[in-house]
Amino acid sequence: MPNSQATAFPLHQDSQYYGKLSQHAHIITVWIPLVDVNEVNGCLYVIPGSHHWELIDSARDENQNMRSFVNVEERGTPIPLPMKAGDMLIFSNMTFHGSQINQSEAVRWSVDIRYCRSRGTYTPTELEQAGEDFMYEKLIRTASRIPMVVSGQGEKWSYDEWTAARLAASQ
Ligand SMILES: O=C(O)CCC(=O)C(=O)O
Ligand SMILES: [Fe+2]
Q1: Radius of gyration (C-alpha) of the chain in whole angstroms
Q2: Where are the alpha helices (DSSP H) in the chain?
Q3: Among 78, 111, 145, 154, whose Cα sits 20 to 30 Å from the Cα of 102?
Q4: How far apart are the CA of 15 and the centre of ligand 1, in A?
Q5: Which mutation among 68, 112, 113 tests ligand 1's pocket best, with the greatest number of atoms within 8 A of CB?
Q6: Which of 38-47, 119-128, 136-145 shows the lowest per-residue confidence on average (mean pLDDT)?
Q7: Within 6 Å (CB) of ligand 1, which residues are found?
Q8: By CB neighbour count within 10 A (0-12 exposed, 13-18 middle, 19+ buried), where does 115 fall?
Q9: Reported pTM
């Protein structure tokens, strides 16, 4: 929202919001602005390389936004990412990102989509599996947010198999 501190996001890792166990999962955020965005109206900033960092401890502030306990800007420099409406920014649950106050008069509309791979399509480590099960359980428990499952029919389809099957079905 224009000139609102509450709707600007302090630099954070999405796993700070999801919960500690999620740090071992591989989750992708797809962020899509529906209007052109720049440093004036609240484009996103990311800290390059921060997806390699550990999960930084944090707590919610008075606006329910996560605040890290350390000053992450001492470890890396946030880079502004101006984008056009409909562009896509893709980053991991461990990438530090945020936005600043929208100083324009218009709402900065955007959509964000999360993707977490599902069981049976890969061989996870124990921690990855624990993290991804944690996310799945959490989403299922929150009735309003039942995840959409994207999968092939049958098991363990590779992308090539999936593409071939789709082609065959369309002929
Ligand atoms: O829209 C914003 O300003 C922040 C978005 C964000 O943090 C996210 O999509 O994970
Ligand atoms: Fe985020």
Answers
A1: 18
A2: 14-18, 126-141, 159-169
A3: 145
A4: 12
A5: 112
A6: 136-145
A7: 9, 14, 29, 31, 97, 99, 110, 112
A8: middle
A9: 0.85
